[in-house]
Amino acid sequence: MDPLSYSHRHCQCHFSTTVLFFTIFLIFEGVSSATFTFINRCDFTVWPGILGNPKLESTGFELAKGTSRSYQAPTGWSGRFWGRTGCNFDDSGHGACATGDCGSDQVECNGTGATPPATLAEFTLGSGSQDFYDVSLVDGYNLAMIVEASGGSGDCSTTGCLTDLNRKCPAELKVKDGKACRSACEAFGNPEYCCSGVYNSPAACKPSMYSEVFKSSCPKSYSYAYDDATSTFTCTSADYTITFCPNVPSLKSSRDSAPNTTDPGTSTGGSDTGIGTGTGTAIGGTESGNDDPETLQQAALASSWLASLATGDSTRTHPSWIFRYGFSLLTSVIILCYVHL
């Protein structure tokens, strides 16, 4: 055998194998991210804020009424989202918001978090393991919000706060214009409300009369710092939708009507997309007089989960079939290469 010919074929084979390994690596990198989709069903514009590590494509943006926007986050990402309201930005993008302001003086939050009170959606994405997520009222409330998981495995429950807590906010917790509701910790600063000092443990820090107001209205949301047992949820390899002012179906409609399976259009890379008519009554609208808030909320969350199950398309691809295909392809290339050496 010609040594030069053998060496040439060996190099070609090695190069092909290296390229294949690199391609499979890129494929796995592509499927390991999660898509976060933000939907605004409020009757007004919301400016979502983003704080997390590593930094996503945006740290804050405008989301007009009836639109959606999507962003990709890598595995291992940890951070939070919230909605800013009553914002006023000039043509150069400078300004501030009435609630949830991040103090950056810009549409982009640039690494700063929400000024309380603000409803928070918090995430930690696993690296080949479970994601953890919750909706938190620990820093107060400014906007109704739910989080829905799609395309994942595990519990993957829908969580959030559907009730307009601004209407139920105790007078001593209300901000002056009634557009947000402070936590007892922010309002009074007492260690027993903040779970600080000698109260900095689950055994010492208990629910307060104020956190119970939040919990009774939003039973699946964090109401105080150690409210973990009923407020943290897990899912594996999912995409997530964060909806501001989600629709609240009545108990009768949730029993008698089929779930709305209209899939709102979304786009990646930060472009806005209309989400259709958005049928139903947004939070802050008319409430049915005799419905129990907790029962109504559970029914609404269940209806939302069923709708997700019905439409359940996820842009996040699961790696199992890719692994099997990639392994078979790699094995074939190696065998073919060395058979012809």
Protein architecture, described:
Residues 251-293 are annotated as: Disordered. InterPro entries: Osmotin/thaumatin-like_sf, Thaumatin. Residues 267-287 have a biased composition (Gly residues). Belongs to the thaumatin family. Residues 251-260 have a biased composition (Polar residues). By secondary structure, the protein is an alpha+beta fold. Helix content is 28%, strand content 18%. The protein contains 8 helices and 13 strands. The strands form 3 sheets. A 6-stranded mixed sheet has the order 10-9-12-1-3-13, covered by helices on one side. A 5-stranded antiparallel sheet has the order 2-4-7-8-11, with no helix packed on it. It has a two-stranded antiparallel ribbon with strand order 5-6. β7 (120-124) and β8 form a beta hairpin. The longest helix has 29 residues, at 3-31. It starts with a helix and ends with a helix. Residues 15-31, 249-273, 275-291 and 303-327 have low confidence and may be disordered.
